[in-house]
Amino acid sequence: MSSKMLLGTVASFVLSQFVSIAHAQSGGSDVYWHIDPTVKSCSMVIDPSLTQAQWHEFTKQVGAISSFKSMASAKTLGTLNFHVAVDYASTPVDQHNPAWINTFTHPDEECPLGDAVSYPTIRASVGVSDNMDVGGYWTVAPGANYGMVGAEIKYAFFQESERFPAAAVRASATILTGVPDFNLNIYSVDLLAGKDIAMVTPYIGIRTSLVIGTVTTSKVNLQKETIAIAQGYVGVAYSIWMLNLAAEYNVSSLNTFAFAVGLNF
Questions:
Q1: Strands in the chain per DSSP E
Q2: Tens of pLDDT along 182-220?
Q3: Residues with Cβ < 8 Å from 115, sequence gap 6 or more?
Q4: Structure confidence by residue, pLDDT tens digits, 152-178
Q5: Cβ of 81: how many Cβ atoms within 10 Å?
Q6: pTM
Q7: Which of 3, 7, 174, 182 has a CA between 20 and 30 Å from the CA of residue 122?
Q8: Phi, psi for 191 (deg, rounded to 5)
Q9: Which residues are CB-contacts of 240 (< 8 A; sequence separation ≥ 6)?
């Protein structure tokens, strides 16, 4: 056999293996995603092929994405002062990861998950004392079957001074809503600090979260996942008159960038 024939044979074999692997990854069809024409938008639905390892990874990643972000420095609002805001968060994800493929369904092949999970949120908080704020947030994916609600309590145990930053501890909870196939709850504790510098307030924090994912469908027989995750974040807030702006970057197994536009009353 000549060297050209040998090279052609090897190339053909490698190509055939590549095609075979790609075919297997797509489930043996031209459509990679799970399709359900009855849904209006990409929705959270467990496929019977979901494995325990994939469920573990999905629970961990959604926990990192959905933990209640601070979007504020350690300073509190003050008694009976209010804050309302709209924020937008974006987290890059691997849309070809089976952990995401087997937990979503799509109306057609033109509606993939995408390279990032992005969603807007409405949030509000009120100062119940000079040292304590309570708040909540809500979001829903338009046309899809899932959303989230959350609640938070922030206590500033050290007020800002000329030399030292403000410091606070924050507890929060987030619950996934609208998904019949599973429940997902996230419970977090933050420690954060920030200090005014000119007209802006940089802040830094750490967050520890407990993520609990429980399957409620009979399509699969998977155990409950209880996962601890750690996140670090940096942010900056800016206020002028009633307007408040904030940007925050969270670092974890998945990294999230978020910004918010709000009003203080």
A1: 43-44, 82-92, 104-105, 116-127, 132-140, 147-158, 166-177, 182-194, 200-215, 225-240, 243-251, 256-264
A2: 999 999 999 999 999 988 999 999 999 999 999 999 999
A3: 92, 93, 95
A4: 999 999 988 888 999 999 999 999 999
A5: 14
A6: 0.85
A7: 182
A8: -125, 125
A9: 199
